[in-house]
Prior knowledge:
Layout: H1 2-13, H2 30-42, E1 48-52, H3 60-75, E2 79-83, H4 87-93, E3 100-101, E4 104-105
Parallel strand pairs: 1-2
Antiparallel strand pairs: 3-4
Amino acid sequence: RRCQQTSEEQVKALRIKTPNLEQAALNLSGGNQQKIIIARWVCKDTDILIFDEPTRGIDVGAKLEIYELMNRLVAKGKSIIMISSELPEVLGMCDRILVMRSGRITG
Length: 107
């Protein structure tokens, strides 16, 4: 019961568009699949989250929802390490930026 309640809360909080909780993730859109993955990690209630290309290959609306979620997590005191190859995304979302190339910090 607790697991289902948590799932319902996450579906609502992340605005995951699914007909029901039993729906297989592979039948959902890319953006909703990404939000399911994020929801699983958010449920772990860790202080630091690593988002590796969190918006790769998803539509603009889903990107905005993920950005909003990330901002809410930071407002709750969570730390996020975001890895992204999209410079506008990095500039818009990050407080501090490291540039890496071939495993080395270059900027």
